[in-house]
Amino acid sequence: MSDEITLADPTASAPAPAEVTAGSELTLGGDVAAPVAEVQEEKVVHRRGRIDRFGVAMGTGRRKTSVARVRLRPGSGKITINERSFENYFPIERDRLKIEAPLRACEKYGQVDIWVRAEGGGSTGQTGAVILGVARALDILYPNLHQILADGGYLTRDSRMVERKKYGFKKARRSFQFSKR
Question: Hey, is 55 helix, strand or coil?
Fold first, then answer.
């Protein structure tokens, strides 16, 4: 009894695969199917805000417990918040830069006048609310800027809220101090 092992010849060429022409598709049976027409569905964009009869875009932003009602129109770049100047209402530079960010991303900084009525919450919540309100108003006034605002994350509502206090606890998760003796 002989144990012979046959090895494949490495110089031999493998059989050529069936050629596939552009626009055709192979099926499991090996038959060439008809070209598949690509159907592109139009993406429905839901815009939040409106334009009034004077051409002023309005957007509402919310963050934590703050609400900001924003009116935006083409102008010289003046920003008024609760009938106070922008620098006076938000003295922290970080907040001012965050509010200017959607305007700078769309290259509309200094080209639109913004009037804001902000209420509730603290400075951080109001800053977030104004950012969302400005972005929504820009989206309504200039629909071609939607993708830039969406990619920057300016049209996304930050849904984080303060967790409620539970009974039997000192705060939302903090227990009362335990004393063994």
Answer: coil
